[in-house]
Amino acid sequence: MDDCIFCKIAAGEIPSNRIYEDERVLAFYDAAPQAPVHFLVIPKEHIGSTNELDNSNSSIVSHIFEVIVKIAKHLDLDNGYRIVNNCGDDGGQTVGHLHFHVLAKRRLAWPPG
What are the structural domain ranges in the chain? Predict the structure, then answer.
């Protein structure tokens, strides 16, 4: 998608601090971190939100979670981490591209603020 910031990051048109990349996904540190460790994992294919997942593309979610586990081991996040997916305006989604935030290295309260 031409105007999607995450598509541009995935294409290398906008720089990012990349942690992991393969043919299907990209992981990079958040530009405005909310925890000492805060990175995002996105599919390279444009999927607007969780609401656009279906039988043809939902396997990307399991792949993303496998990547998160791999990164968590690499970053020694043994004490825990939180995975967040915001969906739609009321869910707090600000970028119209499916993405998962991973936050760690501080105690995360519940419910979130």
Answer: 5-104
Which of 46, 63, 74, 99 is the catalytic position? 99
Number of C-beta neighbours around residue 107 at 10 A: 7
The dihedrals phi and psi of 102, each to the nearest 5 degrees, come to -125, 120
Tokens of 112: 């979130």
Walk along the chain (113 residues) in steps of 10 and give the mean pLDDT of each run. 91 97 98 97 97 97 98 97 96 96 95 74
Residue of 49, 8, 52 whose CA lies nearest to 28: 8
- Which among 86, 92, 76 has a CA at the least distance from the CA of 42? 86
99 is catalytic: yes
The CATH topology of domain 5-104 is: HIT family, subunit A (3.30.428)
